[in-house]
Amino acid sequence: LNIKGNMMGDDGIILLAEALKSAPTLTWLDISLNEIGPVGFQALCEALPDTNVANLICNKNFLGDDVVAYFANILADLTTSGRLRKFDFSSCRLNDAGLIYLINALQNNKRISSIKLTDNFFSENVEAILLETLNKNISLTEIALAGNRFSHASL
Fold it and tell me: Choosing a second label site near 44 at 20 to 30 A (CA), which of 7, 23, 37, 141?
């Protein structure tokens, strides 16, 4: 389902999250550019374990670190259940704290194969923990981090 750019906001995403529970064949969801904030994204996170969504694209929304912490908790719980395999939170105003939440969740989640986190605000302060996690998590086959503030030495 590609509903990118519809400016649904939190209210629209809350309705969508409820509807996803009744859509067993939906595996791909692009909700980019919908002015989604913490309230709407949290509702979506709560619905994810009860869906078959395998690929979640949420580019250019107003997520921030706090709501990504909530997603990371859901991600950690999806280690043995859930269908999610790929997610894309590019240009979602994430900082180092958000990346650390995701890294911690990915240490135990071996189902995720692809993450895209381009054009956020990650710095070289989290390079070591990121590289350590990538070395441990062999299920990750794709990670996109372009447009962040990493040092050249880590790349």
Answer: 141
